[in-house]
Predict the 3D structure of the following.
Amino acid sequence: MFEMIVPAFIVGGIICMIGQLLMDLTKPTFTPAHVLVSFVSGGAILGALGIYEPLVKIGGAGASIPLSGFGYSLAKGAMEAVEKRGIMGAFSGGVEATAVGIAAAVFFGYLMSVAFKPKG
Amino acid sequence: MADQTLKKPLLSVTAEKYQTLIKQYTPKPTIIKNVVRAFIVGGIICSIGQIFINLFSSFGLARVEASTAATATMIFLGALLTGLGVYDEIGKFGGAGSIVPVTGFANSIVAPAMEFKREGYVMGVGAKLFTVAGPVLVYGIATSIVVGFVYFLLH
């Protein structure tokens, strides 16, 4: 049950450190939204170049839970679908591979927004 | 009023000594502190994600499916903790450590949607859910299509 916890902590921690450095060194232009967008696109590009895959193997959730892992899944899905279906796969593969995450985010996001009132 | 005696200076120091004193009392740059906090909080969140992957694997799910299920679970927790007002407190301490993981993505969805609920369930909640998630999906999906297209041309 507790295997891979330490690698996940280290890899995940380092990825978050990079995000913090991006924010602190480029204040105030780099907002949290910019961090999320650049991590998704960055993860997709690193995934396409084959750099992110080893990170997932080493770090497990440490690489898949940060949003760069979402980008990696998008790119991996697109490439795998191109293998199977050709050019149509480029359009379907990314969203297919990440459908659970996207749907969960929309569904749970909606549910909690309706159920709770903001504080203050 | 010209003969008013001047107050004795609080610090009887030379200009040079004053400079060193300034350095001593100026707060240290917070970057190192922020980075360490981001590492700890991000590391803890990813460790929790790993526990879910291990848990779902022990239920017999394949590696990729267990990872997907863990991501969905973390999104649920991030959304719930944002609703309860707990995630903002984590964010104040953790900075990017709470933004970069998918729980931060869930937070960026729930926080504005909850805030704008009074503007209605369509243009309030429905639209504001995508304040940050919109750009993330636009750039993420667009990048994946470009990646797929380049991959198609190279193979």
Remarks:
- Chain A has one domain: 5-115.
